[in-house]
Amino acid sequence: MAETYDFLFKFLVIGSAGTGKSCLLHQFIENKFKQDSNHTIGVEFGSRVVTVGGKTVKLQIWDTAGQERFRSVTRSYYRGAAGALLVYDITSRETYNSLAAWLTDARTLASPNIVVILCGNKKDLDPEREVTFLEASRFAQENELMFLETSALTGENVEEAFLKCARTILNKIDSGELDPERTGSGVQCGDASLRQLRQPRSAQAVAPQPCGC
Amino acid sequence: METGPAPLVAPPRRHGAPAAPSPPPRGSRAGPVVVVAPGPPVTTATSAPVTRVAPGEAQPAWLPEPAPSSATAATGSTGGVHTLEASPDAPKTQTPVRAAAAAAAETETAGASGTEPLKTEAARTSPVPGPGTPTGTPTRTPSRTAPGALTAKPPLAPKPGTTVASGVTARGTAGQVMISGNGAARATSASTGQALEDPSGPVTRPPETCEAPVAVVTVTPAPEPAENFQDLGSTSSLGPGISGPRGQAPDTLSYLDSVSLMSGTLESLADDVSSLGSDSEINGVVLRKTDKYGFLGGSQYSGSLAKAWQYLSNSKEFLEQNPGKFEELERAPGDPKWLDVIEKDLHRQFPFHEMFAARGGHGQQDLYRILKAYTIYRPDEGYCQAQAPVAAVLLMHMPAEQAFWCLVQICDKYLPGYYSAGLEAIQLDGEIFFALLRRICPLAHRHLRRQRIDPVLYMTEWFMCIFARTLPWASVLRVWDMFFCEGVKIIFRVALVLLRHALGSVEKLRSCQGMYETMEQLRNLPQQCMQEDFLVHEVTSLPVTEALIERENAAQLKKWRETRGELQYRPSRRLHGSRAIHEERRRQQPPLGPSSSLLSLPGLKSRGSRAAGGAPSPPPSARRASAGPVPGAVVTAEGLHPSLPSPTGNSTPLGSSKEMRRQEKERQKQEKEQEKERQKQEKEQEKERQKQEKERQRQEKERQKWEKEQEKEQQKQEKKGQGRKLSLRRKADGPPVPQDGDRPSATEARQDAYF
User: Fold this and answer.
1) Cβ-Cβ contacts under 8 Å for B684 (sequence gap 6 or more)
2) Which end of chain A is more exposed for a tag (fewer CB within 10 A), N or C?
3) Contact residues for B212 (Cβ-Cβ < 8 A; gap 6+)
4) Helix (H) or strand (E) holding B584
5) Which residue of A has its CA nearest to B459?
């Protein structure tokens, strides 16, 4: 299946060091847990085409280094991201405490409208939990984030997290809240031929501001 | 021609690697040789007596346990006791294997080599007498002769000359040939069981032995570095300082090389294939077998490489002048903020390398020690995640303490500011890199600029890890060699070469329409351009000089200040390679005088010699034992423990006589020292004067250069007016670098041809 898709979304995976960002990405792309991984220096990335709400969407996911001092470097990656997975480790309160800073970064550097889903990773390590579900979901609510607890090890909720984020972005496009044509929206429409083909049908009620797809 | 010699050429690098495929060299090279056969309990019969003397540097902390199969070098058939002795400074092990044993071992090896890998490993170790003793004869100390002696020896002789002059290829071939010749001779002698090959020498001199290896530096000279090399060369005359490229490795190495050349080209080729990938490329298939670099199984660090790196970076001196400092740092309570992060990273370094594969294993423990020690040593810097891979690579080649000081040198001298909070230095280097790219490969430059891909997006990992996670392992070692010798310039060059090959043609760019695709392309670099031979050749021929980098540095710094204000963090001045480091050291030496006198003799002496030589030469103190009456040394040699393990430790079997000798030596030393001190001072003054003069000259040259550039700039401006297209292209070419001659333009012409 050649690269035909309706939309292309740029995603970020951000959060403190050692929270499992790269493993989440790996799990999502490869469907397996990466046992022996290097820590990320700079950036890693991956992409996958998914179907959401009847549309094919290509997700381009940028996975960033977590250590504080890399922030100055990883900021360059934020530009033009449509969605972000904000990851913390449920067994480490410290990673939870730094969420606010990460969130600020994402909203100021990517876009204020960036769709963010909070992921409490390492759900499989429940006995060592330091951050309760309730607490985190409250934080999510206050900051208008979606929230899921995930496990890159078992794969639980990993795909859901990405899909949920993608779905929200699609809804925003449909509702006109997000204009894919605007540069820096983090959204691109599929290739031109596809657009042409769909042009007639694009009257779909779904998209008040159709991007032509 | 290329193909033929290829295998020959290859061996030099193999130095670094623990291992030439051929059995004997391998073991020897692997300093504290312990061959850890990765496999299942290969603990064959042999494992018995590997006596490790002196824990000094040679002692790899992890050695004992690491391998599940502690199939340590086994003397197998011989059954002789293998004493792996680490001399103080030299990780090189000298194994006084009895001649008989050696011979036996050799045979054994030969037989084994063809067979199953594991066995080979074991065999390898056992036969390996020691670095200097390929033949396994106790007497032979070929490699480790004192500096002066070095030249006299056949193998050594070639080194000085070759080193200086040879370019990469030349080095490879010429050096090799010579070596192989020697090797042959050696080998024969060995086979015959003749012990004495060493023409020059007193039969056994333990301590120095160790020193010799030091001299071997496998650095690839870059084109312009002629000066560097001369400098180094001059040093070598003093003693086994740094010598040139690997191929010529004088002493031990040459022997090893020769042996390896003779015995195992084919094997080595096979090895190469196996080691093509760095850990990142190895996908989880864990065969219990290691390649020669220790991946997927594990072998040891190579003593020679370690020595070279330590001398080049001058970490050796720090080590000697700060005895106990590392332990002290280790004992200090660290900042939990750093320790947490460090702990998280321990299992994430080269997980496919035997040393680091096991959770909580020795490799990981040592890594923890080093990284933690650094956060205490430089609390202002703390820990940066990118330091871990660097430290891990060092640990693969040397024990923790040495690796620590080496890391310190990298962070303080070679790449100051790279790992500091804010990472400004790396961002600045990113800008410098991008400016250089404009000269070297305008096409790629334009593409990246259009895609708005900041340099930090792709070069951060390359630069911060010194390509340890990017290149195939053979290339990594090679690049590190060059880096230790010539500094950050090498990193720039390698990165430029990689970019030129990844994005240097129109076809390639066609497949990189978007930012993501471009990044993907940069992530999956063409294999061919990362191959050792190719890469090194390209790197050495790239016209990117220190001066150019410094100039760009100034320009970008200015820009930075205009757009972003002052730098938050001001690192110390970056030193371009070994020469600069040693020069600086020399400048700073006077103040260190008094303290050093309090330190162990080795430090003092080494200082003296260095001051005189100007380049890193092994501390004479290491040769302490040999300094004594020769006959005495011989006697010692006949004992089971010819080499002295560490300067501080009392390793000598022959107590009383030693004691006396020592006292005597002590006295002599003091006298010598006084004299040296005087000489040194004189020399230093003279040097200082010369330096100042040079400095003046250089500045003048710089000014001239600058003026020229200005002129060119003006011309360009004029031309710009004439036509847009023309001007664009011109601009891309950038002002030619003065030293480069017409090279860049040629390259650019090629680039432009793509349009």
Assistant:
1) B586, B589, B590, B611
2) N
3) B90, B92, B131, B132, B143, B144, B145, B150, B240, B250, B251, B252, B618
4) helix B577-598
5) A42
Tell me which chain A residues have a C-beta less than 8 angstroms from the C-beta of B516.
Answer: 45, 47, 60
Cβ of A183 under 8 Å from any chain B Cβ? no
Distance (Å, whole) CA A43 – CA A64 = 5
Q: Which residues of A touch B571 (CB under 8 A)?
A: none
Backbone region of residue B544 per phi and psi (left: phi > 0; alpha: psi in -120 to 50; beta: other values)? beta
Choose among B83, B51, B575: nearest CA to B314.
B575
Are A119 and A46 in contact, with CB atoms under 8 Å apart?
Answer: no
Please choose, from the candidates B624, B312, B338, B613, the residue with its C-alpha nearest in 3D space to the C-alpha of residue B482.
B312
Summarize the confidence of residues B598-624 as an average pLDDT: 39
Q: Give B351's DSSP letter.
A: T
If you count residue pairs, one on A and one on B, with CB atoms under 8 Å apart, how many are there? 80
Bridge partner list, A64? A43
Instruction: Give the type of residue at B17.
Output: A
The residues, ordered by sequence, that sit 6+ positions from B368 with a Cβ below 8 Å of its Cβ are B342, B343, B346
Over its C-alpha atoms, chain A yields an Rg (Å, rounded) of 17
The CA distance from B266 to B128, in Å, is 20
**Span B301-343, pLDDT tens digits:** 556 778 889 999 989 888 999 889 999 999 999 898 899 889 9
Short-list A41, A68, A38, CA closest to B420: A68
What value does the CA radius of gyration of chain B take, rounded to a whole number of Å?
A: 25
Handedness of CA B441, B444, B450, B451 (dihedral sign): negative
CB proximity list for B434: less than 8 A, separation 6 or greater: B445, B448, B455
Task: Kindly tell me the sign of the dihedral angle through the C-alpha atoms of B538, B539, B540, B543.
Answer: positive
Q: Could you give the ipTM of this predicted complex?
A: 0.87
Residues β-bridged to residue B375: none
Tokens 């090896």 belong to residue: B109
A101 touches chain B (CB under 8 A): no
Partner residue opposite B516 with nearest CB, options A17, A47, A94: A47
Interval B668-723: pLDDT, tens = 777 777 777 777 777 777 777 777 777 777 777 777 777 777 777 767 665 555 54
Q: How many CB atoms lie within 10 A of CB B673?
A: 17
- Whether chain B has a CB inside 8 Å of the CB on A69: the answer is yes
Residue A100 scores a pLDDT above 50 = yes
Residues B737-753 as b or e (16 or more Cβ within 10 Å = b):
bbebeeebeebbeebee
pTM of the model as a whole: 0.58
